[in-house]
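name: query_chain
kind: protein
chains: 1
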Amino acid sequence: MKKIYYSLALLGLVFASCHPMNNTYKSLDADPAPGVLTYTLLPGDYKLVPTSLDANASKQLGLTDTAEANKDVPAILNLKFPGYGNGSRASITYSSPAVVVPLKLVDSSYLIPNPDPNSSGSIIDTAVVYTLTTNDYFLLPGNKYTDFSVAQLLSWLPYKYANAQNGTLKVLTWTPYPATLTVPSSFLYVNGSWRQIYQLTPAQYASVGHGTYNEFTSADDANIASYINELLKADLSVAATAKTGDMKFVSYYYYASSTKTYQRVITLYYNGTNWTTAVVPTSNTSTFVKSGGTWAPDPTVYYTLTAADCTLIANSTIGGDALATVRANLAKYNDFEMGQGQFTTDLVNQALILVLTTDFKTPKVNVNYNVTYLAYTGKDVATVVVFHYDGTQWDIGPVK
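structure:
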């Protein structure tokens, strides 16, 4: 009997000793704590994207735009960083490869390789220069006039050239509206849509010593890119918006011989200083969140108040007559003067809700909107307030 007693006592000890291990197992099974990841994708990372999801990612070693990043990056994160817990956030920087569309000449035609890097096809366009006839204007549904704005012309082109293929170039002369528009102008069909591209003017040819015939010749081959770079840099409308990595198609007249003249297109990229034929790699950053055990695009909307938003608030009645001067200063300096007799936190929130209501006509329901504004208390301080739309109204604070 004693042996049985001691055995039962020993068995009880074993059971008792198991309880601490249960806690250990529970700890091992618990979800990892949320974390913050900042990472730049490496060339090899793009190969983690399944070809069934995106056949191009591993070939071009980059992501074309935000939409492509939102589709492909979660697949990379799920494979490369599976250990991050729900609620984690990732700031991912990825390359955006430029699409190269060089132009080559074939006799009297224009040979433009398909912009799709995965296509081996090429397009030959033999009818480049065209002047609209009276009947052409009426191809645009609902149009009653025999003149076009550029926007109308872009809407008209798919009706005139319904079977256009990538690389189709048209140099069009038409009756412009308003009359100050420059014609002729060049239009290029790229990746499924028409776009107006940059075309050199007689004044620009003259500025580089080619104003007699408004053309370049084979003697200029080594300098054409340099000429056009200087012309683009001198054009204030281009210089004001140029960003590193921008790509621009430029159309110009080219004299090869007495029997061969062409309208040529050169593709240039802005490297931050000059327009060059060398491709400038660019990068973008997107945010992702871990939820339900998988990475997904961050639905948060990030918005920074603009000068137009400040003018909107200045023209409102927020704060009443007593705040009229302060609101006027907001429109002038684009910051909120904070303090007694000035903007309060409550008044700023009212102003930001006015902006959200105006700028986001169809807001996303139960998505955080992080709004950044400048608060002035002796110096400007960038301040962020989080709002969300519950389906009926804007509420202060994140979605719960």
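note: The radius of gyration is 31 Å.
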